[in-house]
Amino acid sequence: MLSTFRLLLTSCTILKNRQGACSTNNDFSCGVRVPKNRQDACSTNNDFSCGVRVPKNRQDACSTNNDFSCGVGVSPARSRVVANVARYRLLPTATATAILVALAGCASPTASNTDSTVSPVATASPASTSGHSGNHGGKGGININTAIPSELDKLEAKLGVPALSNKIQASRPYGKVEELVSKNVITQPQFDEIKDMVTIEDVVLTGEAKDVDFMTNMGLMKGHLMVAKELLEQGKPDQAEPHIGHPVEEIYANVENQLNERKIPEFKTTLTKLQDLVKAGAKDPAQVNAQFDTSMQAVDGAIATLPEAQRKDPKFVLQVINGLLDTANSEYAAAVANGKISAIIEYQDSRGFVMYAEMLYKDIAAQLAKTSPEIDKAIVANMTELKANWPTAIAPPAPVKTTEQVNQLVKKIESDSQKVLKPAS
């Protein structure tokens, strides 16, 4: 019996040490699913300023030992409790009970790190829900339990709170949106500003809205890859890698159900291979270029599964453009702080999304020039001015335009688009 309790104390010590790895900062939790490429980008090159995306010790805690399960909503310490209980299942009842109670006390998080009870998270059938939790056509809201960083950046941009997307992820799961306040992620006045933008429910999309969402996600992938290509051509594989990683680690998971529904061949492996080549330093340019072409063809192939008539319909394409520009707008707002471009990745994200939005518009410009010449003229002028904000993939020393000026241009394009989508009767 004495040796059993010695073993118990040893287990308790191990658990506390492991929990310490996950609790060095109350703002973060090892239960957060954070794309690794963002961590790499923030830790391997001083040129990147990622808005304090993820403290490195937390990434290490989630990647150095198989006993940690950092993305499945199970406390590592509690997992160890289960394992130890199984180990002692043959002991006398009284002994086993004492061990269980002691171990549970060892593993329980402190009150400062988590609520005493965890509310259930709203879920929905994956096949019937949007792969992208954002708000691309004025529909639905941002699901604070599942939204990817680029969607959460819209809240960050709205409130002007640095690293807010990371804080929201760190405090998941949420049983209700008000827990953003009770978990001290934001203040009540801040919550009042965004309460109509957030939800814990997945948005069920059907028909055209579902197709717009799918095309927008593919457009985000295209934008990331386009800016990655520019950076590779300029000999910046370290800066290109995050933009290849985002489609793999953020977007693909959100559209995987739709890809399967549409019977689109799996291409995550293709994207991952490209990411690995670039992460290794892009030492063989010919091999990287060939893999890049294969990756882009896979994304284009997914887009091509939508009916051609739909992809050439100005009303459909304008909705996708608005979704891309909306995301670019919030990414740029997250990139700029105190009159400087402080988050290089977000600057580059927004550039890629605007580039692809402009490409999409050029495909429908001739149609709009015939049916709505004044609207076409206005959109082209505003798009040209907007694009000038990103002169190169490498961020300039100072922003060309303020975040408010970029926001105004995006809203003007959206407003003109609405005249086509909902013409006056």
How many strand elements?
4
* Spatial shape: globular
Largest sheet: 2 strands, parallel
Alpha-beta content class:
mainly alpha
> Unreliable segments (pLDDT under 50, ≥5 consecutive)?
1-139
The share of residues in helices is 55-70%
- Rg value: 24 Å
Cα end-to-end separation? 85 Å
Instruction: Report the average pLDDT across residues.
Output: 76
- Largest beta sheet: what is the strand line-up? 1-2
Number of helices: 18
Q: Give the strand content.
A: under 5%
Order of helices and strands: HHHHHEHHHHEHHHHHHEEHHH
What would you say this structure looks like, in words?
This protein is mostly helical and 425 residues long. The model is unreliable at 1-139 (pLDDT under 50). The chain has 18 helices and four strands. A hairpin with a 2-residue loop joins strand 3 and strand 4 (340-341).
Which structural traits does this protein have?
single chain, about 425 residues, mainly alpha, two-stranded parallel sheet, about 60% helix
What's this entry about, in short?
With 425 residues, the chain is mostly helical. The protein is built from 18 helices and four strands.
